[in-house]
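Sample entry (106 residues):
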Amino acid sequence: MLFLDDIGVHDITDVTYDAVIKLIETKMYCSDDTKAMILNNTARMVRFYGEKGLCPINYSIVFNCQIYPHIGSASEFSDENRMALDKITDVTMSADEFYNSVTPFI
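Predicted structure, serialized as tokens:
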């Protein structure tokens, strides 16, 4: 929670996707392994509080160093790519439902 507090998140209920991205992109003056450990422990904390209903549990997936580089904001895509994405996507489950379905495979 100390690292989240440093970026302005003072309560676990205030965790947002933007705060998660900001934390991941924060320059930490430590080794890559130490940063990965910090992010993994933060993910565990977010998962714990998410299971208690205090914050979105799905944010814990974003902290995974193998997943984060492949996440992008659809708003940053070109109009053409967003239209193509809209044509092929059919969201039939919430992010939390998705999280619960993929967790056993991660």
